[in-house]
Design a protein that fits this description.
Length: about 160
């Protein structure tokens, strides 16, 4: 009997295998509410390529404060853009001082005002601008409180 109980308890402690690489987009994010000491769930978030702001990808942070995949609307030509395709297309363009060849500039906007509630944060939106290189994965964590935030290049 003790062995069966040990196996039952052990099965509950096992973690799920990580999502396959194909199940996540090349740009992901994670938001932690540092005041509450927990993930920031249900934050409405928008992602866009700076050189093509007409195409927006949207998502809402999950219970763990993470976004692994983004949704986009179908464009006027009936296509549904993909982040991976946009990164590749922009990487092939001529480079500039801000955006070297082989890369693209992206922006993530977090609707922190809706998360904290009207008038309960100094930052109703947090927008981060960062450089993306083709062929790499970019994880953008946001550490958030009502009166400060910080970010870094995650892994």
């Amino acid at each position: 009997m003790p062995l069966a109980r040990l196996q039952a308890v052990s099965s509950h402690l096992r973690t799920s295998p990580p999502a396959p690489m194909a199940a996540r987009d090349p740009i992901t994010c994670h938001v932690l509410d540092t005041t509450a000491g927990r993930p920031a769930a249900h934050i409405i978030t928008t992602l866009m390529c700076a050189s093509n702001p007409a195409v927006a990808f949207t998502a809402v942070t999950n219970a763990d404060g993470r976004i692994a995949t983004w949704e986009s609307e179908i464009d006027h030509q009936g296509n549904q853009p993909s982040i991976k395709t946009m990164i590749k297309e922009h990487a092939e363009k001529e480079g500039t001082a801000i955006c070297p060849k082989g890369s693209s500039v992206w922006r993530i906007k977090f609707n922190t005002g809706a998360y904290y509630g009207p008038g309960k944060t100094f930052f109703p939106e947090v927008e981060l601008t960062f450089l993306v290189k083709e062929g790499e994965h970019f994880h953008v964590p946001l550490l958030l409180s009502p009166y400060s935030y910080t970010t870094y290049r995650g892994s």
